[in-house]
Amino acid sequence: MVDYDLLIPYGWNTTGYTVPDGAVPGRVIRTDRGECDVATPAGLARATLPRAGSEISGLCTGDWVLLETSTGLLPLAVTALLPRRGVISRSSASGRSAGQVLAANVDTVLICVPADGDVDLGRIERLLALAWESGAQPVVVLTKADAAEDVPLDSVRAVAPGATVLAVSATSGAGLEVLTAVLDGTVVLLGPSGAGKSTLANALLGAEAFATGAVRASDGKGRHTTVYRELRPLPHGGALIDTPGLRGIGLFDATEGLEKTFSDVENLASACRFGDCGHESEPGCAVRAALGSGELTERRLASYRKLLRENAHMAARTDKRLAAERKRAWKEVHKQQRRMYRQRGSEK
């Protein structure tokens, strides 16, 4: 009988999965060149990943998997991917129409923004859309608050409806107690290099688990001290995934995420006189009225429109890719049918 106690710190108590008899579950801790570190009921182990192109390729940190142990050989082999939830996806950095999964089975997303520099509200909106789309709860964390002359909490809260916004200092410990109180389940840290993600992760873990580094003095940008996505159990329950800094944050099928990120704009648009209002010069436009009164800023409306266009573009590319894949699949079916008919004819 499998003892799941060793998996509880890695989030097994919240999964609700049913494991077939004889199978062994595990959670992917880190992936690396065709193999992964995985937490199992027997402890941490090394397992081989399926080959690229297989039905279960593209595994990532946070995935729950089934492992093959019948051979008795090491390393183990991942044989199945259990259903995902809380998936953080962005458009592929290569520009392809397929998305890139950054982390899986996530409950809380910490969007890390350094408060000691210019706070990019547009970047926060992008990350919020990714977080909301996953179904996880976003928390915007203004890091390095001790080094900031003025922490823009009000400005950030204005672009993050429904999300918690906190200012913390991993160095002094200010705000960490409040942040810890809002964490739930598996937590992933997202943000650019130099945002202090690894420093914050170490503070939450209570140990120097991840390497940290200073930002460059020349341009204030961070170095990639974290090169893997890696999961660690949190001391007070739950698990934490640290990630490398994100340069590009392209949206991938994030319609619901955008609706939640820009719920204020969506609510205004629903009050327009015309259902197809373009918010330009139409009479009875509630959005333009909000701009005039200062309730809504031009920057936020422009960001909303930009992200809607980007998301629609990626959705169209994805639809074309799926259509092409279906066409190729049908061609293969027809080829197999023709081969079968030829074989039958030759046997007569």
TrEMBL record:
<dbReference type="InterPro" id="IPR030378">
    <property type="entry name" value="G_CP_dom"/>
</dbReference>
<dbReference type="Pfam" id="PF03193">
    <property type="entry name" value="RsgA_GTPase"/>
</dbReference>
<feature type="binding site">
    <location>
        <position position="279"/>
    </location>
    <ligand>
        <name>Zn(2+)</name>
    </ligand>
</feature>
<feature type="binding site">
    <location>
        <begin position="191"/>
        <end position="199"/>
    </location>
    <ligand>
        <name>GTP</name>
    </ligand>
</feature>
<dbReference type="InterPro" id="IPR027417">
    <property type="entry name" value="P-loop_NTPase"/>
</dbReference>
<comment type="function">
    <text>One of several proteins that assist in the late maturation steps of the functional core of the 30S ribosomal subunit. Helps release RbfA from mature subunits. May play a role in the assembly of ribosomal proteins into the subunit. Circularly permuted GTPase that catalyzes slow GTP hydrolysis, GTPase activity is stimulated by the 30S ribosomal subunit.</text>
</comment>
<keyword id="KW-0690">Ribosome biogenesis</keyword>
<feature type="region of interest" description="Disordered">
    <location>
        <begin position="326"/>
        <end position="348"/>
    </location>
</feature>
<comment type="similarity">
    <text>Belongs to the TRAFAC class YlqF/YawG GTPase family. RsgA subfamily.</text>
</comment>
<comment type="subunit">
    <text>Monomer. Associates with 30S ribosomal subunit, binds 16S rRNA.</text>
</comment>
<keyword id="KW-0479">Metal-binding</keyword>
<keyword id="KW-0378">Hydrolase</keyword>
<feature type="binding site">
    <location>
        <position position="277"/>
    </location>
    <ligand>
        <name>Zn(2+)</name>
    </ligand>
</feature>
<feature type="binding site">
    <location>
        <position position="285"/>
    </location>
    <ligand>
        <name>Zn(2+)</name>
    </ligand>
</feature>
<keyword id="KW-0862">Zinc</keyword>
<feature type="binding site">
    <location>
        <begin position="143"/>
        <end position="146"/>
    </location>
    <ligand>
        <name>GTP</name>
    </ligand>
</feature>
<keyword id="KW-0342">GTP-binding</keyword>
<feature type="binding site">
    <location>
        <position position="272"/>
    </location>
    <ligand>
        <name>Zn(2+)</name>
    </ligand>
</feature>
<feature type="compositionally biased region" description="Basic and acidic residues">
    <location>
        <begin position="326"/>
        <end position="335"/>
    </location>
</feature>
<dbReference type="InterPro" id="IPR004881">
    <property type="entry name" value="Ribosome_biogen_GTPase_RsgA"/>
</dbReference>
<keyword id="KW-0547">Nucleotide-binding</keyword>
<keyword id="KW-0699">rRNA-binding</keyword>
<dbReference type="InterPro" id="IPR010914">
    <property type="entry name" value="RsgA_GTPase_dom"/>
</dbReference>
<keyword id="KW-0694">RNA-binding</keyword>
<keyword id="KW-0963">Cytoplasm</keyword>
<feature type="domain" description="CP-type G">
    <location>
        <begin position="96"/>
        <end position="249"/>
    </location>
</feature>
<feature type="domain" description="EngC GTPase">
    <location>
        <begin position="104"/>
        <end position="247"/>
    </location>
</feature>
<protein>
    <recommendedName>
        <fullName>Small ribosomal subunit biogenesis GTPase RsgA</fullName>
        <ecNumber>3.6.1.-</ecNumber>
    </recommendedName>
</protein>
